[in-house]
Design brief:
Distance between the termini: 128 Å
Largest sheet: none
Strand content: under 5%
Shape: elongated
Low-confidence stretches: none
Number of helices: 1
């Protein structure tokens, strides 16, 4: 039992010595800057120049007049007879 207590004490001492202790970090205190009141508004700037107007395109020339079509041949005069076309008789309904 004495040897086990001695071994346990050695293991505990080595185990605690191996632990990493966190370092204390000192943060420097800096003064907090608070903005002051807003100043008066500045003067209005100058108005910009007006843009130039674009150019108007040229008007195209007028096309030429087309040729006159050919005149048709004169029709034949009739011989005085009249033709009557009769529709075919319809089939009786069943």
């Amino acid at each position: 039992m004495n040897k086990s207590l001695l071994a346990l004490a050695l293991v505990a001492a080595v185990g605690l010595a191996a632990c990493d202790r966190p370092a204390v970090v000192a943060v420097p205190v800096s003064p907090v800057v608070v903005p002051g009141p807003a100043g008066p508004a500045g003067a209005t700037g100058a108005t910009g120049s007006t843009g130039s107007t674009g150019y108007t395109g040229a008007t195209g020339s007028t096309g030429s007049t087309g040729d006159t079509g050919a005149t048709g041949a004169a029709g034949k005069s009739g011989d005085g007879t009249t033709i009557v076309v009769m529709p075919p008789a319809s089939a009786p309904a069943n």
